[in-house]
């Protein structure tokens, strides 16, 4: 305390001149007498004598008149001060001097001495002690608006200082180029230049400006993306997803195009995926181009390890009005964080190394170069304006359309010498918007109007719509267009996108959506009259969109380029609008209206699980680049609410699907993401004072920021080995259980039994073979189980069988699969280090958080739950913080070290070395890097972690998604009674309370 | 039945009302290919009409009491509906009838019921689980029964 006070005083006195000793000399005597009469020391100052003398010397006299106030204050201060002894010493010396009254005072020496003091004092007054600006030191009533900006608002005596400060500030500020006035900066052409410059580093979506005005923007994966709206709209966005329509800009998703012979492509791609995880590239409905497929890619021949990531893919329809094309076109849509890995793997697998110059990116490259040149012009001199004045010679600066970060000379298209397969990177070439919710049909059908048939060119000079005119000359194609149009019209009579087959593709050519833009933002509502055409709708629902209707001109690069380049600028459109005879009437462009090829892809909503089928379904719309805003605004004006990345995350959470890249811990992007997240969370944690943050050591949370999947699986492996015998006995038990269960159920037709049994056996041998093949590899790393058959069996085993009806059902559903339980266990044992994606819903209270722990309940917990329905869950006993002492010690030593260093720097080498070999850094409240056994650290055995968790607005209770260890899961299931199967405990990292949750695996 | 429009469908997420058990496995009917495509059956939502304020779709997931009180509120003084339609599909038919009868019993003779039945065509999506080509259809049609009960006030409330 006293220390702090001393420091404070030292700070205060810092700028006091050393030569001046306060109080005694200048303080008038009465103060001394008045205030120190209680004190033992009665010191006298030479002041009384000084008085008459001072009148002779002018300066001291002046000074004296001013002095009483401050000196008085100082006296006060000193009387309160702590360091009396010090003062006493100083004063004592003077006392001696002043003990005897001087008989005379020499004016000159006295004045000189005083002059020095005055100088020092003046210096102290002019020099300000704080680092605040001069106008900030003014008392509040003297402050004026815009003082920092205009020095004339300051009192005159301070202006000089303020001026100097302002100059200094100008120098300190970094040189910025906006020497132009705001008006000039906001001029369109300069704005475009500035925007182009700013999107060189991070790609901007075409809706960037729109988003930047309304969203919190984040820089992620090389893009500037809208994270969440600045308005409060968490719940509103949820409502939009469920009842209305939510719009998302997914243009940052990357499209990779593969061109080549079908067999060639399929043969190689088959190496990168497995039939176990579901339909692959060769699935018939996908291959024909009717449906969009989705799968997970692995490194070639490395399944089930080395995940690359989930993708969706679209094949270009095979038959385009009779012409059978041998080469097929395949689009693979990936998340940008996975793109690089997938692209390099594809290139190595297809041996595509030759860059193609003549291929699709070539025009873009030239376009970019052009832009570059114009940019150079812009940068080199500010002659731009003059040039403009001189003539129209100067190339107008073009807005960057597409990927602004591309290096002009680098190729984005590769071919293979041997197979002739061409891979091109179509990032930002095709925009993708996602409409989620039941009203997306209304929004789509109201915003888009199919293109009218056009047989004559509007203008022979331009290339506008020449492809469409060409197309309309072919009667077959016209009829195709009409069929597409009819199907599109039918969508109005369907109340939800989930009624249509999952992944349906519909190609379309639409007119300019800006033409029929409503004047005000309105909400598209379904029209009951459209619901009459039942027969056709039924046919559409049952048979889906015919293959030929999936054809779209968006597959054709040249047409896309044409469409992009011949877009009528917004300005011209507005100009035409203003020239309408009846203001506000519909604009009719006639043959000049652009025709845009688009692709509509249905997105299935929630497909797995029992509840809320089809929740969150919608349509994806692919548009050629350049047309982003032209489509965006009409959608928004039809009542679509716009969501950002956060809303996307929530969407996938409520759908209970893994989100890219958060929920793919076994792919490189997922690992990278987890690391970044850890750093962010750790920084956030460290920013709080230690007393104000959770002590995770005491809470028994070993890894609050990063899920240590590797160690979790390893620990379970060790545990499993140790418990081998007990597991075997329990498995025998469960087997007997299973056979008991088998008895009541009626077996299904024999064929299926044989089949599934055969499947399982086959599977088992296959897996065992696999395990033998790369036994070393399996022991080295973990992976996530994505084998659908195994997951189905697992999910069946997780379900409780309490009700009678349910029991029969589940038994009949699972059929013979449970009989093979004894065969299953060793099979799962072949996967010693496997994680399973699970979804959890809490039974009662609680909302789980990120990285919450999934634990196995003990028998007593379950007993208590069955006894007391309101039992919330057990509590974790508090752990002791074993690191606290260590941290304190370290701290002390460090302190000593620094002290020692101050004394002698040479001798502290040994100490330093010691400090280096100490564990890097211990943070209070966190475990150091080497964690103990994860599973048995707490009172309940750890099973896994939660990767997404929140209160679910859709389910009305806390819901979580995460991964558990397979071995642990089987261990748990085998020991749980039938009616309590799948019950687990959840504990958030910063709490000691466990909560009951039901675990389920949705396939 | 007055001018009441024959409503042919429109069930919200009437969860288990129509058909049970998503992911039931069946075999592609008449698939000639040797490794017959294994298909997963996924129920799709029943077709529905745009909802008017007085439409109540009964399901088996929401609490009975809540659904009843919702109807009462709609018919009550501040509800703003002179008549409501209670729709029930499949398993929820019983519940729809139950709600309507409860309403009538609680309405002290002021409510009149008029029931209509219909058949709703449903579609179940078929998803192949592998690549095998059986050329299966994308969906399977089936029908389910439905009931539409019109509840209207006989006399205006005092």
UniProtKB/TrEMBL annotation, chain A:
| Localization annotation | Nucleus
Biological processes per GO annotation: tRNA 5'-leader removal; tRNA decay
Q: Where is the composition biased (Basic residues)?
A: 1-14
Start and end residues of each stretch annotated as Disordered: 1-76, 81-100
UniProt keyword Nucleus present? yes
> Mainly localized where?
nucleus
What the entry lists under InterPro entries is as follows: Pop1, POP1_C, Pop1_N, POPLD_dom
Query: Which residues belong to any copy of the POPLD domain?
Result: 618-709
Which residue numbers delimit the Pop1 N-terminal domain?
176-260
- Which UniProt keywords are present, listed alphabetically? Nucleus, tRNA processing
Sample GO molecular function, one term: ribonuclease P activity
Specify the domain of life of the species encoding this protein.
Answer: Eukaryota
Q: Does Nucleus count among this protein's keywords? A: yes
One Pfam entry name? POPLD
GO cellular component terms attached to this protein's record: nucleolar ribonuclease P complex; ribonuclease MRP complex
POP1 C-terminal domain sequence ranges: 835-1003
What this protein is called in its record is: POP1 homolog, ribonuclease P/MRP subunit
Automatic annotation (TrEMBL), chain B:
A GO MF annotation of the entry reads: ribonuclease P activity
GO biological process annotations for this chain's record?
rRNA processing; tRNA 5'-leader removal
Task: Give any Pfam family that matches.
Answer: Rpp20
Listed GO CC annotations:
nucleolar ribonuclease P complex; ribonuclease MRP complex
Which Gene3D superfamilies is this protein grouped with? Answer: Alba-like domain
Biased composition (Low complexity) is annotated at 28-37
Instruction: Please give the subunit comment from the record.
Output: Component of nuclear RNase P and RNase MRP complexes. RNase P consists of a catalytic RNA moiety and 10 different protein chains; POP1, POP4, POP5, POP7, RPP14, RPP21, RPP25, RPP30, RPP38 and RPP40. Within the RNase P complex, POP1, POP7 and RPP25 form the 'finger' subcomplex, POP5, RPP14, RPP40 and homodimeric RPP30 form the 'palm' subcomplex, and RPP21, POP4 and RPP38 form the 'wrist' subcomplex. All subunits of the RNase P complex interact with the catalytic RNA. Several subunits of RNase P are also part of the RNase MRP complex.
Q: What does this chain do?
A: Component of ribonuclease P, a ribonucleoprotein complex that generates mature tRNA molecules by cleaving their 5'-ends. Also a component of the MRP ribonuclease complex, which cleaves pre-rRNA sequences.
User: This chain belongs to which protein, by name?
Assistant: Ribonuclease P protein subunit p20
Q: Which organism is it from?
A: Gopherus evgoodei (Goodes thornscrub tortoise)
